[in-house]
Amino acid sequence: MEDRLNLEKFGKAFVPERFRPELKEYLLKSGIDYVPYKFFGILFWVTLVLTYIIYFSMIFKSISEMGAFMILIITFISWFLIQSIISFLIVMGVYLYLNVTIYNRTKAIEEALPDYLTLVSTNLKGGLSFEKSLWAAIKPEFGILAKEVTLASKKVLTGNDIKDSLEELGMKYDSPSLKRSLSLIIGEVESGGRIVEVIDKTIDNLKKSSVLKQEMAAATVTYTIFMVAIVIFITPALFALSQQLLEIIIGVTKQLGGSANSGVLPITIGESGIDPNHFKTFSVLAIGIISTFSSMIISIISRGDVKGGLKYIPIFIGSSIALFFIFSNVLGSLFGGVA
Questions:
Q1: Are 95 and 123 within one domain?
Q2: How far apart are CA 117 and CA 125, in angstroms?
Q3: Could you give the CA distance from residue 290 to residue 316 in angstroms, rounded to a whole number?
Q4: How many domains is the chain built from?
Q5: CA 182 to CA 118: how far, in whole Å?
Q6: Domain check: are 234 and 291 in the same one?
Q7: Do 253 and 324 have their domain in common?
Q8: 246 and 254 Cβ atoms separated by less than 8 Å
C-alpha cells in the first residue's frame, strides 16, 4: 500500500496542477473515472530501465575511450534524449488508444440514442414527468448511454438543474447528433412546449441520418475493397518483385564484372552501390507508412472520420509486411537461379 502511494505521489509530480482538471475530463470520456497517477510513476521507471539498456548496449561502448568530461556530457545528452523519446512514444500510443476508445464510446452512444429516446417518449405518453421518464428509460442494453444518463439523472434527483445536467452530457462527447438532440429537448423543456412531439421528431431524424450513413458506406464499398487490395496485396508484391530484380541485376553485374576483370570483356564494370538489405529495410518502412495513411483514408471514405481507421493500422501494417516477406521468399525461390 505504501509503495502504491509513493508511486501515485511520484507520478503526480509529472502532471502540472493546471492540466489535472482537463486530464480528468478527458479520461472520463474514455470511461476512466480517476487519473492514474500511478501509471505515470510506473512509466518513469519503465523508461528509465529501457534507457539504461539502450545506452549501455549501443552508446557507451563507442564513447568509453573518450575523456571523462566528454563521456559525462554525451551521457547526459543521450540519456535525456533517449528517455524523452521513449516516454513520448509510449504517451502517444496511450493517447491514440484513448482516442479510439472515446470514438467507439461516442458511436455506441449515437447508436443507442434513438431507442433510448423512444422509451423516454413512451414514458412521457404514459404520464410520467420528464425527469422520471429519463430514469425509467435506462436499460442495461443501452450500454454506455445508460451509464451516462444514469449519472445525469442522479445529478437531477440530487437537486441539480435538468438543463445543466443534460448540457454537461452533450458537451462530454464530440457528437453533433447527441448535442443537437439534447439541445432541442432542453429548449422544449424550458419553454414548456410539447416535449413528446419534439422527441418523436428527433427520433425520426436520428433514424434517417443513420440510414443515410449506412447507404453512403455501402456506396463506397467498392473503393474500400480496391484500396485494401492495393495496400495489403499489390504493394507488398511490387516491393518484393523490385527486391528480386535488384538482386538479379546485382548478380548479373558481378558476373559481368568478373568477366571484364579476367579480360574476356574489354570494359570495366563497377560494383553496385545498392545493398539489398538496405532496400529491404526501405521497403518495410515504406509499406508501413503506406498502410498507416491508407487505413486513415479508407476510414474517411467509408465513415467520414479518420479516428475510425486508427484501430485498423496494426492489422494493415502486420498483414502487408507479412505478405511482403512471403512474396520475397516465393519470388526468391522462383528467380534464385536466374542470377
A1: no
A2: 12
A3: 9
A4: 3
A5: 14
A6: yes
A7: yes
A8: no
For residue range 13-72, list pLDDT tens digits in order. Answer: 667 777 777 777 777 777 777 777 777 778 888 888 888 888 888 777 777 777 777 778
- Range name among 12-26, 98-112, 288-302 with the lowest pLDDT average: 12-26
Which of 72, 104, 136 is at the close of a domain?
Answer: 104
18-52 b/e (C-beta count within 10 Å ≥ 16 → b): eeeeeeeebbbbbeeeebebbebbebbeebeeebe
215 assigned to some structural domain = no
* 231 and 301 together in one domain: yes
Does the pLDDT value for residue 2 go beyond 80? no
CA 58 – CA 66 distance, rounded (Å)? 15
- Is residue 234 domain-resident? yes
CA distance 181 to 168: 13
pTM summary value: 0.66
Q: Is the pLDDT of residue 266 over 60?
A: no
Which domain, by its residues, includes 9?
2-104
pLDDT reported for residue 265: 47
For residues 93 and 6, membership in a common domain is answered with yes
Can you read off the three cell numbers belonging to residue 193?
412546449
Torsion angle (degrees, nearest 10) of CA 131, 134, 140, 141: 180
Same domain flag for 244 and 300: yes
The residue from 176, 209, 242 where one domain ends is 209
d(C-alpha 8, C-alpha 214), whole Å = 46
Residue 214 located in a structural domain: no
pLDDT value at residue 110: 82
Lowest mean pLDDT among 80-89, 235-244, 264-273, 311-320: 264-273
Instruction: Supply the DSSP symbol for 33.
Output: -
